[in-house]
Specification:
The chain is α/β, with parallel strands linked by helices. The chain has a single domain, classed as Rossmann fold, CATH 3.40.50.150. Helix content is 33%, strand content 22%. It contains nine helices and eight strands. An eight-stranded mixed beta sheet has the order 1-4-3-2-5-6-8-7, with helices on both faces. The protein is globular and about 40 Å long.
Length: 223
């Protein structure tokens, strides 16, 4: 069910426009829409040439804000397609005075319209929708069609970090990453009972952990 548009949303989006690129696409065919590039000048946007990280599906921005505050030597771009949600993430970023975080409102299929090839050092996929029915497998953010997009924007030697609470989605992701030529490391079937020390808990993650569910995590290395 589509979320109801929040009150004063346009005014709120306007107030965060300095840190938000709002993608508007007349062409709903992703394959043709991305042909007309609108590359971001990332160095100008951030005012430096630090490594670029990308979070796809940032939700209300808890992970993005915390990660950017912890790692001030990187530039983090958080992507979210829902205006109702991303506006809260932008407002949290401003409230927390985070200078190395920016946002793009678009679907994941459009990221290579805005992000130059071979320019991203890391991608985060935190609790992406698992689309459990097999007929929707191509919508999963670790399906091959998305992995091919990530390959084009990632630098050689870059990596993707994934977390999920869904075992079947995790198994699917491992298979897709392997088939696409990624090398896997730090594969965990129970993150919160592992020795991994740099975890930042997302909104969904805290809820799942409170329910006693295991968190699955992996790193997929490109090139």
């Amino acid at each position: 069910m589509r979320m109801r548009r929040k009150k004063h949303l346009d005014e709120r989006l306007s107030s965060v426009s300095d840190i938000l690129l709002s993608g508007e696409h007349e062409d709903r065919n992703f394959d043709t829409a991305i042909l007309e590039k609108e590359y971001i000048d990332i160095n100008d946007w951030f005012g430096n040439n630090n490594p670029v990280y990308l979070e796809i599906g940032c939700g209300k921005g808890r992970f993005a804000v915390r990660y950017a505050k912890r790692h001030k030597d990187i530039n983090l771009i958080a992507v979210e397609k829902d205006a109702n949600v991303i506006v809260s993430a932008c407002e949290l970023c401003i409230e927390e005075n985070v200078s190395n975080l920016r946002f793009i409102k678009c679907s994941a299929e459009y990221i290579e319209k805005y992000i130059r090839p071979n320019s991203v050092s890391r991608i985060f996929l935190n609790f992406s929708c698992p689309y459990p029915k097999n007929k929707y497998a191509s919508h999963r953010l670790t399906s091959n069609r998305f992995l091919e997009i990530y390959k084009r924007v990632l630098m050689a030697g870059a990596k993707i970090e994934q977390k999920t609470d869904n075992m079947h989605f995790f198994e699917f992701s491992i298979e897709q990453f392997s088939n696409a030529g990624f090398k896997l490391s730090h594969v965990s079937l129970d993150l919160h009972n592992s020795d991994f020390e740099d975890n930042i808990v997302t909104e969904y993650e805290s809820r799942f952990v409170a329910q006693g569910l295991p968190i699955y995590r992996l790193e997929a290395h490109f090139g």
